[in-house]
């Protein structure tokens, strides 16, 4: 049994950190009094303490305590005892490197597959797919592998951005990049726009939020997926 | 002695492939009758043959023959015998993976350091820096290392894009990403806008084109660098 929220972003334009998700999170984490936060992705390079403090403030409004995984001497034990787990956004290369360096990728997968409620945003969502191969982030550190948690049988592209038809910039669009990915990798890629998230309950995977998501499959034209679509057979 | 052109992009908006650079390239490669092209970065996943054909057409206008490195049984020998070398853009992760897989990263560095004229555009420019850690590309394949050719003692960010103040997208700006890079890596990063290139002649490194470039140093505010600035002491 799995209970997972995979969000494109933590923050919407003109809204507070996690604000749009808080009603959903109050229900998602209803049995937890405390959330274990994984601060490894360090957005903008902020410290683990600074990042954990930011998350603590947001979760106070739904009456949850927050502890940072970096505060524990034994992170595997901390994961095993957690009532709920949140991995925040930042740099996916850094996050994946630190999960491997601390030897907890496997333990994290295990406890979440066994039912510990999990929330990921941005980089913390990227790692829910089969690999981090469709992240938008800059490769600022070299991880020992691109393989990630595989809670879903496809890859994600959070913060999905539609091509800007007025742009004169010659860098690749997001769609071009994902099509390149499919020249070398078979798994589908779901482009999650900011404000969208997936809710995973056991074998059910449902698109939530008001926006459509863009689904890319190898050798097929991309299509738009409506909110409330079931994606459990996507692989 | 080194003779290198490191260009942000192959193509400007509303202009043909390499068109804006051709007068410069005619001079840069004046002693070469034939150019060895490294097609490994495969933009949009096109084949080595397709990519080489595109480059062949562009170089015909300045009367140079083009051969693809993939056409040779012994790529190291091909590099050693080349009169001029061009590495085109595409995906930097793929390019670096293929350079290592074919065991030619070292040979390429050696012949260019010994004077074979080199041109890089986009991904082919990224590899001229110390590492590929400031590429904009998607990690579609896993390279054995992020270390690259080190023709210059800093890193590059080709296709440099200024932040869009009207954007409501919450993904990181290029400047934010480069600042994150500097939390973990000491070397300067030069953001090269489309239309800019570096000319390296022995120890001289000069910014060319009409635009300024944006220079990021660890623990310093970013500054704009004017065309014709000497960057030989940048490290």
From TrEMBL, chains A, B:
Claim: Hydrolase is one of the keywords in the record: yes
GO molecular function terms noted in the UniProt entry: dipeptidase activity
Keywords from the named record: Dipeptidase, Hydrolase, Protease, Serine protease
UniProt xrefs under Pfam families: Peptidase_S51 (PF03575)
Keyword Methyltransferase: no
Family: Belongs to the peptidase S51 family.
Protein name: Dipeptidase PepE
Species of origin: Flavobacterium chuncheonense
Lineage of origin: Bacteria, Pseudomonadati, Bacteroidota, Flavobacteriia, Flavobacteriales
The encoding gene: pepE
């Amino acid at each position: 049994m799995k209970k997972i929220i995979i969000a494109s972003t933590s923050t919407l334009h003109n809204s507070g950190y996690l604000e749009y998700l808080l009603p959903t999170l109050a229900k998602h984490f209803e049995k937890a009094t405390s959330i274990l936060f994984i601060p490894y992705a360090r957005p903008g390079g902020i410290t683990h303490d600074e990042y954990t403090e930011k998350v603590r403030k947001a979760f106070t409004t739904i009456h949850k305590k927050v502890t940072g995984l970096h505060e524990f001497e034994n992170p595997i034990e901390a994961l095993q005892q957690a009532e709920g787990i949140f991995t925040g956004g930042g740099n996916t290369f850094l996050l994946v490197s630190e999960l491997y360096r601390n030897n907890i990728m496997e333990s994290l997968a295990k406890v979440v597959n066994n039912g510990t409620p999990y929330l990921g945003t941005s980089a913390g969502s990227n790692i829910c797919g089969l690999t981090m191969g469709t992240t938008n982030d800059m490769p600022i550190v070299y991880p020992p592998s691109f393989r990630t948690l595989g809670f879903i049988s496809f890859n994600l592209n959070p913060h999905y951005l539609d091509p800007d038809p007025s742009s004169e910039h010659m860098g690749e669009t997001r769609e071009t990049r994902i099509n390149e990915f499919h020249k070398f990798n078979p798994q589908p890629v779901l482009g999650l726009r900011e404000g969208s998230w997936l809710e995973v309950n056991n074998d059910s995977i449902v698109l939530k939020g008001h926006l459509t998501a863009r689904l890319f499959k190898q050798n097929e034209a991309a299509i738009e997926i409506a909110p409330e679509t079931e994606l459990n057979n996507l692989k």
